[in-house]
Specification:
The radius of gyration is 21 Å and the shape is globular. By secondary structure, it is an alpha/beta fold. α6 crosses α12. The model has no long low-confidence stretch (mean pLDDT 93). It folds into two domains: 180 residues, Glycogen Phosphorylase B (Rossmann fold, 3-Layer(aba) Sandwich); 171 residues, Rossmann fold. 43% of the residues lie in helices and 16% in strands. It has 14 helices and 13 strands. The strands form two sheets. The protein has a seven-stranded parallel sheet, with helices on both faces. The chain has a six-stranded parallel sheet with strand order 10-9-8-11-12-13, with helices on both faces.
């Protein structure tokens, strides 16, 4: 059983990569692996037993210490996103990876279609030095080959992990049907687009409501406070739908979040960008067995293609309205979508995803031993 070091954000930091890091570390531990986490970009440092060090941005001594600790494991898994490390576009991560003496797996969260020259060079250098690279969708792997000068043989697809479904299903949904957008709140998730079509749902049975659930993303909060959240509330008031829109900033743990998602009639991901090849919210919604209506960003096109949801064009309020009405008014269709989501869910659960990473780690350690 390989000992695994994991580098990246980790709770109590509240961001998607921190949630991913915790899910992966816990999943590997549940399989019997010894896991040591080096936490990055931490205003709040974790005191969890798995966390063995904290990487301080811009500190050569911290980089050296953390690298040495990762080298005490058999394999190092490095989460990569451009804002997770110090230096321009997170370039400090290269110092860590280049100094590793153990096999490395780079988990790439963001694959840009039009990177800057520096962003391109950082990602290409990471792939070049890494023993293995994982992305979270076929679309991401294709983009890596089309946009970057990389060895595609190193790159494999491992789904974005998510909590598994509870053993017991919720007994039912009560009250107004809920259209739900969840996750850390920031511009670009398309909440405005959904608010703008809420009034057209007033004749749907049960008088559906739209809920935006989640704390403001830490980077947005640091730059502008709660101005964006307040703008959504003002938009709902201006559209005359304040009684049908809830902007909920409460933090929910895994169990409470799962309960909220499963109680929704449909999850709405009206992302503004057509760029996104990885969406943890999309994976988490499908893993909880819910129908999804999403704009046509690549990860949504890929995951919803077998019937777990409906994909609509960007900037097309009529299509968004029609898709939401279909799910809200056609129980058989909604049930079929939920059933397909539940069929897909096991492959996205943390047990399966952690097993995939553990298999990669075993393969790399065996290869290194045989060399």
């Amino acid at each position: 059983m390989p000992r695994v070091g994991v580098l990246g954000p980790y709770p109590p930091t509240r961001c998607g990569l921190a949630a991913f890091g915790a899910g992966l570390a816990d999943g590997l531990t549940a399989l019997g692996a010894e896991v040591g986490v080096v936490q990055t970009a931490a205003d709040e440092r974790s005191t969890a037993p798995q966390v063995i060090a904290h990487l301080t941005d811009g500190s050569p001594a911290s980089i050296a210490t953390c690298t040495a600790l990762l080298n005490q494991h058999d394999v190092a898994i490095i989460q990569h996103d451009y804002d997770s490390y110090g230096g321009p576009d997170g370039a400090d991560v290269l110092e860590v990876v280049e100094a590793l003496q153990v096999p490395s797996i780079i988990t790439v969260h963001t694959v840009l279609s039009a990177p800057t020259s520096r962003q391109r060079s950082i990602l290409e250098a990471l792939v070049r030095v890494a023993d293995q690279v994982t992305v979270m969708s076929d679309a991401a792997r294709r983009r890596m080959g089309e946009v970057y000068d990389v060895d595609l043989h190193k790159i494999s697809v491992v789904p974005h992990g998510a909590p598994t479904l509870p053993k017991t299903r919720p007994s039912g949904r009560f009250g107004r049907p809920t259209m739900l957008t969840w996750g850390f709140l920031r511009p670009g998730k398309g909440a405005e687009s959904v608010i703008d079509v809420v009034d057209s749902m007033r004749d749907v049975a049960g008088h559906p409501r739209y809920m935006v659930a989640g704390r403001t993303h830490p980077s947005v909060l640091a730059q502008e406070g709660e101005a964006y959240r307040e703008s959504l509330v003002a938009r709902a008031q201006g559209a005359g739908v304040a009684n049908s829109v809830v902007v909920d900033g409460n933090y929910r743990g895994t169990a409470a979040l799962t309960e909220l998602i499963q109680s929704s009639a449909v999850v709405v991901l009206a992302n503004d960008s057509a760029e996104q090849v990885t969406s943890g919210v999309l994976a988490g919604s499908i893993a909880r067995g819910r129908p999804v209506v999403a704009t046509a960003f690549p990860h949504a096109v890929e995951l919803l293609g077998t019937g777990a949801g409906i994909v609509v064009g960007h900037d097309d309020p009529d299509a968004l309205t029609a898709a939401l009405r279909q799910v809200l008014t056609q129980p058989r269709l909604a049930g079929a979508m939920a059933a397909e989501a539940r069929r897909l869910a096991p492959s996205m659960g943390w047990p399966a995803v952690a097993e995939a990473y553990l298999n990669l780690a075993r393969r790399l350690t065996a290869r290194r031993s045989a060399a």
